[in-house]
Design brief:
The complex is a heterodimer. Chain A is built from 7 helices and 6 strands; from the N terminus they run ααββααββαββαα. Chain A is of the alpha+beta class. Chain A has a single domain, classed as Heat Shock Protein 90, CATH 3.30.565. In chain A, strands 3-4-2-1-5-6 form a 6-stranded mixed sheet. In chain A, helix 2 packs antiparallel against helix 4 (about 85-95) and helix 5 (about 130-135) runs antiparallel to helix 7. Chain B has a domain at about 40-120: Glutaredoxin, CATH 3.40.30.10. Helix content of chain B is about 40%, strand content about 25%. Chain B has helices at about 5-15, 35-40, 40-55, 95-105; strands spanning about 25-30, 60-65, 80, 85-90, 115-120. In chain B, a hairpin with a 2-residue loop joins strand 3 (about 80) and strand 4 (about 85-90). Classes of the chains: A alpha+beta, B alpha+beta. The interface of A and B includes residues 26, 83 and 173 of A.
């Protein structure tokens, strides 16, 4: 009984898509990825909001792949439920969208979630910059590529580019973290500005 | 706009400071960032910790997201590792995160209200 109550709590609180993204990316980190790509496409003419998370980690075999959307499947040993993927799938399906997960052993995994843009149940993206900063701070220094398109305008953030400029200064340097956060925040604001022509 | 030029300035400023230190020196703060932690509010907690450290110019403290340690019911969990000592905080919110920085990291005094265990490794 105690368990089911805890599950309920989780469902209520993951109310931003960026929180789901943070959660799904932890799987990529655990799969020994060296690069995680997060691609968000908002297309108002198609009424679509798409989130793609792609990694080059260890991948999964067909059997595991068929089990991952089951909330009672997990590879962890500390508890018996694994909710990350099933919750993200539910968030997409709630908006008349769809959810696909593809994986190839030793090649990587892709998670594709399609949302209906104006559906009342579509959660807002939320503070994606906080999600990305936390991902950048991962211990293994996995590269993060973030691409966000709103109609025709695109913003790209790529840690490989930042690393090149930094020339050995660690990401954990706090000025760098603040720069990354502001860069992402302003970049996304910028693509959402209406063209004044 | 925060441009790459701004980033270059930050780099040059950082290079002029001669602070050679290993990744594991000083204090490490670990924040549980699995599904349980995230849904309990670990992201704003981690953001607060990172911001406080940046704003107060605290040196040699790193904040790292980590997985689930199996105590999902008392997330968000924050661990402070200092030398041989490990302090585990549970049910941390933004206010407690601020207290951890002010009272524990700066003041050296454990925030007893939210601690679940303190032991030698």
């Amino acid at each position: 009984m105690k368990h089911s109550l805890n599950i309920l709590k989780v469902v209520i609180n993951l109310n931003e898509l960026s929180l789901h993204i943070l959660d799904i990316c932890q799987n990529s980190i655990k799969a020994n990825a060296t690069l995680i790509k997060i691609i968000i496409t908002e297309d108002l003419s198609q009424n679509s909001f798409q989130v793609i998370i792609h990694d080059d980690g260890c991948g999964m075999n067909q059997k595991t792949l068929s089990e991952v959307t089951d909330p009672f499947f997990t590879t962890r040993t500390t508890r018996k439920v694994g909710l990350g993927i099933s919750l993200f799938k539910m968030a997409a399906e709630m908006t008349d969208g769809d959810f696909t997960i593809k994986s190839t052993l030793a090649k990587g995994t892709s998670v594709i979630a399609n949302f209906k843009y104006d559906h009342i149940d579509r959660a807002p993206l939320g503070k994606i910059e906080e999600t990305l900063v936390i991902l950048v701070l991962n211990e293994l220094e996995i590269d993060i590529y973030y691409e966000h398109t709103f109609n025709k305008k695109t913003y790209i953030f790529d840690t490989r580019e930042v690393k090149q400029v930094l020339n050995g200064i660690p990401f954990t340097s706090h000025d760098v973290i603040l720069w990354i956060k502001n860069n992402i925040k302003e970049g996304i604001l910028d693509i959402h500005k209406e063209e004044t022509t | 706009m925060k441009s790459l030029d701004d980033l270059k300035k930050i780099r040059d400023a950082a290079q002029s400071k001669v602070t050679m230190r290993g990744k594991n020196d000083g204090i490490r703060i670990l924040v549980g960032m699995a599904t349980c932690g995230i849904s309990a509010g670990a992201r704003p907690v981690m953001t607060k910790l990172v911001e406080e450290i940046a704003n107060k110019n605290i040196e040699a403290v790193t904040v790292t997201p980590v997985g689930c340690i199996g105590e999902c019911a008392i997330e968000p969990i924050v661990e402070v590792l200092q030398g041989e000592t490990r302090t585990t905080y549970c049910r941390v919110d933004v206010e407690v995160a601020e207290r951890i920085i002010n009272e524990h990291i700066i003041g050296g005094k454990v925030v007893q209200d939210n601690v679940i265990g303190k032991y030698r490794l």
